[in-house]
Amino acid sequence: AYGGLVLLEIAEVADAPEAPWSRLAAQLGGGNVPSLDDALAAIVAADRAAEAEAGVAARAAVPAITASPARDRDIRLADGRRLAYAEWGDPKGTPVLLLHGMPGSRLLCPDEQATRAAGVRLIAPDRPGYGRSEPRPGRAVIDGADDLGELIERLRLPPVAIVGWSSGGPYALASAVRIPELVSSVGVIAGDAPPDDVPGFWAEATPELRELVAAVRTDPATARARVAARLSWYAADPGSIVDGALRDADSPEAALLALPPVAEALRAMFVEGARQGVAGFVDDWIATVRPWGFALESIDRDVSLWWGDADRLTTREHTDRLASTLPRAKLTIYPGEGHNIALTHWAEILGALLAGGAAIDSAGARPGG
Questions:
Q1: For a surface tag, which of 46, 162, 218, 327 has the fewest beta carbons within 10 Å of its beta carbon?
Q2: pTM value?
Q3: Strands, E, within 113-180: which ranges?
Q4: Residue 37, C-beta contacts closer than 8 angstroms, at least 6 positions apart
């Protein structure tokens, strides 16, 4: 009731079939409450939590997502920079590299139980400037493969499966070009195509964005400060990415993100990504809008693509461009799902990556092998 008014004074609510009014009336039964708004909010919050549990459980078990690595280490690269990486799963298992999005960090395993069950040694590195990996200003997308190649060789790994989630996708593709002999299979989860390759992309961008991109391409070192100012919100409150998504009740991610373990792990991943401020985010952003250093058509390798058709971050146009331009792409679409399909389909994704590597081995066609 409002201001202590008895709910019976609006008794018609008790007969209304609509939730949450009918439930509120039944719950109060004529009693007093300090605030009807608060009572309604509590019921709605409880309903959303229950729907989240039921919604995810209906598709599969709640993902065993974690931001707490089994092993958290770093190496010194040939140029002296530190590269940090986290691990989960069987230390003697089949190696899979997971490349985080923009922004992001090494601190995320989409499903620890599925990783162990697949017999995988999951290795997630920080890109330069994120987490504990030292920056590399001026890097291009293709350059990211160099760090991954050093990591693979320093860990004495056999050729590995590499999968990029979101803006990690371009770096997985770059690896297929730069270090094909070290890569057994390639996957991209909800990833973008080069902006210049997507028809109409720049035409739909704001004039401000087009002008900034032009400045970045003309003089990236000078324009870097402008990009840093544009992205400064991330250093100030990295967890706001998750908090904003939680406030969007209509998001296809709402049920999943309402699960506390999911929200907490994603928040920890983003917070770690901002350990050095916006350094990694800025260099990622610049690398993404500049030429990537390779053409999609040049990737002579099977590439598995996964995308949810309710994704609000990665558009259909980008997905179609990847699927139509990569010579040997296989696209899987999940109806009604959004950007976090890595969490809900991790076992399936790992299975495809491992099968791709096994197929190359059995055919004796591993490049450079």
A1: 218
A2: 0.82
A3: 120-125, 160-165
A4: none
